[in-house]
Queue: 4 jobs
Job 1
Amino acid sequence: MKLKLDENLGERGREILVKAGHDVATVPGQKLQKAVDKELIRHCREEGRALVTLDLDFSNPLVFPPETYPGLAVLRLPRSPTQAHLFDVVRTLAGGLARADMTGQLWIVEAGRIRVFIRDR
């Protein structure tokens, strides 16, 4: 899957996803660090990349309707996270992507668990 990692996820997170077979671009690699949320998600849509982020703003389906994007994965960490926590969550995401396609979906990813937002019709 084509993914874009937000600026707070680092090189090791990118490596985990690349080793899992994904095409991964990063916000710093594309010099989008200062981009506002709407500009960043527009880039994701234009590139056909799902966004992987720690930014909880992207978990609001009223502001960012998941069905209009290539996918949104919001990573959730414990209150006092370590680098190991981050890598566990990224590995959980990689495992989920091996089993399912998140195109047009919002995934809330925690270590060992993925919750998928389903809009009531």
Note: DSSP finds three helices and six strands in the chain.
Job 2
Amino acid sequence: MIEGGDTVDDEKIIELFFARSEDALTELDKKYGALMRRVSKNVLKDDEDVKECVNDAYLGIWRAIPPERPSPLSAYVCRVIRNISLNRHRKNTALQRDGRKNVSLEEIADFLPDDSDVFEKVAGSELTDILNRYLSTLDRTNLYIFMRKYWYFDNVSDIASRLGMTEAAVYLRLDRMKKSLYKYLVKQGVMK
């Protein structure tokens, strides 16, 4: 165990994983446990499911490091817990989804018109590139709103509170992003 009770930096945590020290999980939990639980809770709402997903995430991270050396560790941890939580949600709701391995638009489905079938038109890796290019066009505040809403699944009131904005202002920005994303997808040939 690391002395002093403070959290250690990411590189030291990764080194603990490479040394196969169980302290790696302790330090990971101290530094990112609350974040992992919040991300999972935003997806699942059920405390028991959240606990199971966080435990599954710790096991997955333990198995992945080494050989992986993720940087930044926080993004990696969030991606792992988010994916596990989404999979649990799909299982819980018995929705049969397309099993594509790359990025999908299901998390931002409300940005797209109901009659669109983007999944059939664009391969996952191409879609990832298109979305990344779109995200790079957003200003810092809109990017933050987009990521908090559609990556971390934060609710609008939390986003508004963090930014010192009204909920109406956040909803307005989300609506404008919906329209601009749609136009961008049309421009890229994904939508008609």
Note: Residues 1-5, 95-105, 113-121 have pLDDT under 50 and may be disordered.
Job 3
Amino acid sequence: MNVLGISGSLRKGSYNSMALRAAQKLAPPGMKIDVADISAIPLYNDDVRAAGFPDAVLALKERVRAADAILLVTPEYNFSIPGVLKNTLDWLSRPPEPPFDGKVVAIMGASPGQVGTARVQYHLRQVLLFMNTFTVIKPEVFINNCATKFSPEGELTDAPTAKIITELLAALEKMKQRVG
């Protein structure tokens, strides 16, 4: 199973990117998680879209289309979706043939706070519902107090977090099998 992982943070030392790399290592046998870089996606402008999708958007659309499933890993900015991730989803939701249509998606996120990205995940679920995805509901992976769960080198050190990420990936695989 080929999964495309997208981090909603561009920061070099992003805990969410660390969590995405941890998911790559925790993937069950037969699952491969590739990571997409969204830093080159321009700000959405419908005039630009009408003239032709930018190359970075076309390339990402093709990667999403080719993936069996998507793993979104995101921080929470101001109780919601980081602009860079929402912008990317806006580009990917536009016709023709939006690549998220019918795609299986899982969400997880890391935050230094106590809530651990619960609010952003709720907002993402609303957006993904409109984008016609099959989104994994449980388990919920809210990595709170994230600075205590990764080593200075960026390795996940928290066993309960590793366990819940493993469970999320298994649920993603199971949902993909169910919906085809």
Note: Residues 2-179 form a domain with the Rossmann fold fold (CATH 3.40.50.360).
Job 4
Amino acid sequence: MTLATVITLIRLTLIPVFAWIAVRYGRTVDSESPDEALRWLAVAIYTLASVLDGLDGWIARHFDQKSLAGAILDPLTDKALLMTGLITATFVNWGIDWHLPVWFIILVIARDLEIIGGIWILFFINKRVPIVPHWTGKVCTVLQMIAMGWIMLRFTAIDLIYPTIAATIFTIWSGYEYYMMGYRQLPGKLRS
């Protein structure tokens, strides 16, 4: 097992720890005695897991530690971390009665299911699926993380609606781009 894969596994174990602490913090808020140390611990764990994402990729590339396990685990861990963060930002009380709207998390899940379903369909038809990340997908992920951080850090200077709208636009746009990318991979007779 490579060092990059070990770091990915550490990130994977940090996800339930983050969720547990976030939920515990939300319960202290609900009981009207918020434990801010728990909030900052949740933020620190989420940040550590995010930073380790960059580290495991850097180690894999620079020390030629690319592996099949890493190629499968890394993107799954990335998605699990982001979805866990978004779900807690939607359903956990972070203390200022701010949370992502439920329709937003439904949109994010629908987009991800569209991408996963498209990959399965293309693999069934073509027996291969060249996956090329689109820049709108990367912007989408960053904006979703910003909206989530907005809540966890309680950034109240600007209303939450603005990062939510920006993330929504790129979630829809990237979903469309990935749909079109998949559509273009269909054999000609299936496209007509």
Note: The CA atoms of residues 20 and 42 lie 9 Å apart.
